[in-house]
Amino acid sequence: MGLYIPAGLLFVLEIAPADVRAAAVKNGHGNAVFTFLGGVFIDWHSEAFMYGIFSLVTCGGIALLFVLRHQINLSRAEACL
Length: 81
Hints:
This protein is an all-alpha fold. Helices cover 81% and strands 0% of the residues.
């Protein structure tokens, strides 16, 4: 599991739009928080619960990226008019 975290961060850095890239991978604090929360969730419930919660958070982040990209494209289109 330890190797998936840096690989995931590199993947996010590659796919994130340039406008939000600094926010996507700023530092290791978010990584540390989610690693801690993952341990807490496993202690409280199960691995399936942890992966379910993290899947929901990931889907929310992807949706937020699409919304931001759409808003940026709209603002650029309005600026051209």
